[in-house]
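Example for tutorial group B:
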């Protein structure tokens, strides 16, 4: 129970501030709702599917080797 409208409003403001508080940086391995579902797992899963890595690499003409200095000058 609250002592009155003023106590209720103060408590409500404190709860809202606590919910909106910035939690700071979170590692990719622990940012999901469960340990199995997180950003790192999603990226690894996507990259290991057939064709996605090459799509991500934009079908690199050098097949993953370093690019020529002439291609870097563009």
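The residue assignment follows.
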């Amino acid at each position: 129970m609250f002592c009155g409208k003023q106590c209720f409003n103060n408590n409500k403001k404190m709860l809202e501030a606590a919910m909106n508080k910035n939690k700071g940086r979170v590692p990719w391995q622990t940012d999901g709702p469960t340990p199995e579902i997180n950003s790192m797992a999603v990226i690894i899963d996507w990259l290991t599917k057939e064709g996605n890595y090459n799509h991500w690499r934009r079908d690199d003409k050098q097949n993953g080797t370093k690019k020529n200095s002439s291609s870097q000058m563009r």
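The longest helix spans residues 5-20. Compare this with the pattern of hydrophobic and polar residues in the output above.
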